[in-house]
């Protein structure tokens, strides 16, 4: 499923890029041509500011954005708001060093803001250590606040006398029971599963809510957090450490010296099993990253066809296909949270399973 979605995303993106390139070769209006690649990459990439809304004033397009804190470590700690860059049009001087915001990244420059390139057109300017609060980080904090609110609101209903679920409780309780019974208890021994249930619940709700926030086309949504490899890498690493630090003696014995197998075969299988320790979290990381990013690319690519083709006739078809993809992405949002949590529970269950004699 994820391979098909990624192939479609890349195919549509390639097609509109070719149309855009062809349009750029006609006349002197190339600078005014809509660039779908730039729009899509701008959406799926992180940013040092949070875009709220754009509007047209006296023929000039203006943007309302929320500046976010920039935190740099470069011969000391430098903290300032991203609005100091004025959308990358101005330099920021701290001490004797100038900083420039260029394509979403902060580089050291000279007083004139020179950006140098190598033969492969890669920027060669050095970068400071950047611990800024970017749009993805702010979106992550928003999701954490939503999760805390969901669970605390539901928990208050359990403090009084038992009653029928209602409000937030009626929404959260079935999901918690689903994760407990159909994921945790189904993959992990019941007398051990409760120890990992808080982790699995947090994993499921964190991924699902961030997937949904990424589908909201206006502020405070639109961030591609779960399509960011840094986040999926960290989630996969957490599963990796929880799994292997919880592994029993039998689990490690079956990896490095599996019983009942001839010694030459053991040596071969132990290498394969050791590699498998790392391929499992790697698959978790790529699966979530590819599916969420592909969904964003497909939706934006289909929407961009209206502006690339410059025909009102394509608009109904494009909008209909976008709506269909959006409905599919709502399913994918919960499906990817379920798959990530299910596989994490499966790996943990294999690591803590009691040895059968």
Structure description:
This protein has 357 residues and is of the alpha+beta class. The chain folds into 2 domains: 49-133, no CATH class; 136-352, no CATH class. The protein is built from 9 helices and 8 strands. The protein has helices at 2-24, 36-44, 135-156, 168-187, 190-215, 229-245, 249-256, 263-309, 314-352, and strands spanning 49-57, 60-67, 69-73, 77-81, 92-94, 97-102, 105-109, 129-130. A hairpin with a 2-residue loop joins strand 5 and strand 6. It is globular, with a radius of gyration of 25 Å. 26% of the residues are buried.
Helix content: 55-70%
Trace the largest sheet across and list its strands. 4-3-8
Number of strands: 8
Number of DSSP helices? 9
Spatial separation of the terminal alpha carbons: 39 Å
Overall residue-averaged pLDDT value? 85
Low-confidence spans: 10-31
Given helix and strand content, the structural type is: alpha+beta
Features:
2 domains; 3-stranded antiparallel beta sheet; 59% helix; 357 residues; alpha+beta; 12% strand; single chain; 9 helices
């Amino acid at each position: 499923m994820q391979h098909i979605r990624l192939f479609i995303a890349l195919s549509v993106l390639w097609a509109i890029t070719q149309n855009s390139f062809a349009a750029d070769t006609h006349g002197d209006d190339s600078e005014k041509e809509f660039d779908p690649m730039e729009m899509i990459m701008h959406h799926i990439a992180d940013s040092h500011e949070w875009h709220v809304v754009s509007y047209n004033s006296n023929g000039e397009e203006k943007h309302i954005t929320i500046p976010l804190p920039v935190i740099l470590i470069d011969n000391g700690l430098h903290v300032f708001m991203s609005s100091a860059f004025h959308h990358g049009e101005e330099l920021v001087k701290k001490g004797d060093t100038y900083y420039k915001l260029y394509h979403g990244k902060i580089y050291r420059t000279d007083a004139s803001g020179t950006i140098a390139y190598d033969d492969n057109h890669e920027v060669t300017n050095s970068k400071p250590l950047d611990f800024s609060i970017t749009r993805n980080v702010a979106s992550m904090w928003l999701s954490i606040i939503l999760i805390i609110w969901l669970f605390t609101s539901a928990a208050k209903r359990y403090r009084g006398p038992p009653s029928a679920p209602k409000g937030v409780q009626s929404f959260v309780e079935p999901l918690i029971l689903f994760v407990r019974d159909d994921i945790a208890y189904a993959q992990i021994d019941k007398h051990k599963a409760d120890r990992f249930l808080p982790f699995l619940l947090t994993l499921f709700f964190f991924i699902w809510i961030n997937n949904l926030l990424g589908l909201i086309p206006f502020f405070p949504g639109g961030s591609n957090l779960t399509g960011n490899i840094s986040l999926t890498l960290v989630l996969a690493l957490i599963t990796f450490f929880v799994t292997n630090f919880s592994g029993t003696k039998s689990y490690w014995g079956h990896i490095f010296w599996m019983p009942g197998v001839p010694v030459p075969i053991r040596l071969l299988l132990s290498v394969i099993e050791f590699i498998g320790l790392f391929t499992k979290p790697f698959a978790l990381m790529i699966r979530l990253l590819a599916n969420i990013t592909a969904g964003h690319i497909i939706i934006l690519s289909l929407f961009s066809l209206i502006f690339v083709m410059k025909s009102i006739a394509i608009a109904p078809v494009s909008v209909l296909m976008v709506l269909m993809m959006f409905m599919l992405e709502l399913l994918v949002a919960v499906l990817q949270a379920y798959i990530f949590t299910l596989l994490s529970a499966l790996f943990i269950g294999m690591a803590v399973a009691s040895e059968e004699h």
